């Protein structure tokens, strides 16, 4: 089978299922595992390079409002790759090529290739998506082992937190300029880690708020997880927030509990590594119960914190 993945999370699922050799094409954003970077890239971004964080948001909103695409698909390369299966999603127009465009193009290719759209909105649906891809590719046994292992890790966290009554108030931000509250599976990740997301709505899309709304929520923990940014880049962005006068009134900032995490790796991509994200959150919220190498995977951002973690 020849597979083209049009979403980084689906690329990760394919790799976990042992489909590395069958994966013949990926997107320009696919970067995990590192070997995937050697695969042909069938997409590119249409946004201008070197935009600031705020400029990226403005450009995305402008193009989305005008119904202009954010990505270009290399149709000639895709045809050359002769895929049997194209993996994509219809959940988020900011994350991938329009599914309508994908289906229209697939219909013109020899075969034509099957198109599987996978769009989980919850933790459970992320696990189910591994099984969906497995059914299309004949890897059901492998999927059962993967999902079982992921469920066991979530159960371990639940067992470690059993009997605890403290639920820190948490706000997770998937964008910082302007602030956008993370939705879909992220509030469930917070709950699984022993916290209470006071702005995010489980299973529902992310949404834009004001810093006044963030302050009014009075979070004990504020987690910066801007979509598409690495840990070091997020630390840099979060540092700029510390000078915002409204943020100084937020309990999380006052007690030095503004945390930066790697969203691309562990939070914004609905793949197997979100369970690692739950482990990271549990170590942040309940370090006495859930020890972890969180020092390497998350950074508390305070005045004087280095701009990039070691």
What's the quick description here?
The protein is an alpha/beta fold.
Would you kindly provide a written description of the structure presented here, covering whatever features stand out?
- The structure is a single chain.
- Strand 1, helix 1 (8-16) and strand 2 (23-25) form a beta-alpha-beta unit.
- The protein is globular, with a radius of gyration of 20 Å.
- It has helices at residues 8-16, 53-65, 75-81, 99-108, 123-137, 140-160, 186-192, 211-217, 231-241, 251-254, 263-266, 274-285, 294-297, and strands at residues 3-5, 23-25, 43-45, 71-73, 85-88, 114-117, 169-176, 179-181, 196-197, 207-208, 221-224, 258-261, 298-300.
- With 310 residues, the chain is α/β, with parallel strands linked by helices.
- Strands 7, 8, 9, 10, 11, 12 and 13 form a 7-stranded mixed sheet that branches. A 4-stranded parallel sheet has the order 2-1-5-6, sandwiched between helices.
